Amino acid sequence: MIANILSIAGSDPSGGAGIQADLKAISANGGYGMAALTALTAQNTQGVRAVTLIAPEMVAAQIGAIREDIRIDAVKIGMLGSAALIEAVAEALSGLAAPVVLDPVMVAKGGDRLLAAEAVTALRDRLLPLATVITPNLPEAADLLETTVAADRAGMEAQAQALLALGPGAVLLKGGHLAGADSPDLLLGAGQARWIEGERQATRNTHGTGCTLSSALATLLGRGLSLGEASAQAKSYIARAIARSGDLSVGSGHGPVHHFHAFFPEAT
Questions:
Q1: Is 208 a catalytic residue?
Q2: Annotated catalytic residue: which of 16, 210, 222, 255?
Q3: Fewest CB within 10 A of the end CB: N or C in the chain?
């Protein structure tokens, strides 16, 4: 049976991040993708030009319509934008018995803020406790904890522990912002305490990596994989998608990853 995966996130018209990236990653990892839009953005590989948040009641209605009719095997939550949207999503998901992957989208690759500063408290209080696993990068973790960005593995361990204390079932803390040749992620919680290693790749094509990883992880959890195995496979998938990003020719800034690399021959 193919797993049904619901993404709750904003739209990226350039196709590299947000709902568009989520649906690609879900499909590439063997799931059936569904989407509840939280925001419309005008953006490209160079940055965000404008953002319009969807009314909270409309976001709740989208989720409610899906829940009335379709089995949901896992949920990925991305960009929410405001405290009112966070509250609406938390209420709309109440009682759902499915894994929830929360990617706390706060700042776009180009530095544009996508979550109002005053909404961070609502994210901590309302959604973190509902999450099976959260997938922050290091700046997002620091934002959630109101502290400085971790600069080494010891700092990552301390911040992952602090995030776990806020109530999620587990934390997958992404170390891509560390200096050096490695790009390790730390999985902590739900009986897990492991480093998932990776090499840093020399490319600007990293637009939508967080969206893609969290959607792949939600899909693999929805298919029944354990958290440890799903995290490792999602990490492997995004690494290959980044490695093959040069096969694409999309924009002049931070280009997208190649979500469907497995279905295309390598460019020559």
A1: yes
A2: 210
A3: C
User: What domains, with CATH codes, occur in the chain?
Assistant: 3-260 (3.40.1190.20)
Candidates 16, 33, 135, 211; catalytic one: 211
State the DSSP H helix or E strand holding residue 7, giving kind and residue range, or none if neither: strand 3-11
Pairing of strands 100-102, 74-77: parallel
DSSP letter assigned to residue 54: P
Q: Which of 38, 135, 209, 212 is catalytic?
A: 209
Listed as ranges, residues in the chain with pLDDT below 70 are 107-114, 268
16 catalytic residue (yes or no) = no
Q: Are strands 74-77 and 47-53 parallel, antiparallel or unpaired?
A: unpaired
Q: Of 57, 56, 9, which Cα lies nearest the Cα of 33?
A: 9
What is the structure's pLDDT at 183? 85
pLDDT of residue 137: 93
Residue 191: active-site member = no
Q: pTM score, two decimals?
A: 0.95
Please tell me the distance from the alpha carbon of residue 104 to that of residue 80, in angstroms, as a whole number: 9
Q: Which of 174, 212, 219, 222 is the catalytic position?
A: 174
Q: For residue 47, indicate whether it is catalytic.
A: no
**Integer Cα distance of 205 and 104 in angstroms:** 21
Active-site option among 208, 212, 222, 255: 208
Tokens of 220: 């693999």
Q: Tell me, yes or no, if 211 is annotated catalytic.
A: yes
d(CA 47, CA 113): 11
Of 45, 206, 212, 219, which one is the catalytic site residue? 206
Backbone angles phi, psi at 10, to 5 degrees: -90, 170
